[in-house]
Prior knowledge:
This protein is an alpha+beta fold. It is 20% helix and 36% strand. Strand 9 and strand 10 form a beta hairpin. The longest helix has 22 residues, at 59-80. The model has no long low-confidence stretch (mean pLDDT 93).
Amino acid sequence: MSRIGRMPVELPDGVEVKVDGRHVKVRGPKGELARSFHPDMKIAVAGKAVQVERPSDEPRARALHGLTRALLNNMVLGVSRGFSRELQVEGVGYRPELEGKDLVLYVGFSHPVRVPPPAGIAFDVDTKARQIRVTGSDKELVGQVAADIRKVRPPEPYKGKGIRYVGEHVRHKAGKAGKVT
């Protein structure tokens, strides 16, 4: 059996799971998430845990087994603790700001770039450290929004200016050598 798939998903206090065939709804203190899974996977709630079972030992079923369990676990963690991604803005004159709920980026363009948060996502900005925190209960959506913000001005390899994930290493290039006469 799949090592990940056979482990039960423990349900913390305040989290409830409703299974309706292949549709699963998870509700907790941070919100509600719903998702449809592959019809071959059997999802059952037993007390304070959710168990995923597969129909056979075929490679496709084994892969879906682990995937289904991991997605369920992320849903439970999202509605109980939530997920976050941090970005760092580097560059002279580059800065992030919050206007209402919208994120406004000043990153070297002739105009500021406004990023409205999708439903279920919140932005938090530390103007001193020039850091942006993207938080939400859906791990996939948090990662996608953070990637979209980074895409506005990815870090360039010569001076390192741009938007990067906190802890991301950007390889620097040497640039042009001056002419020797």
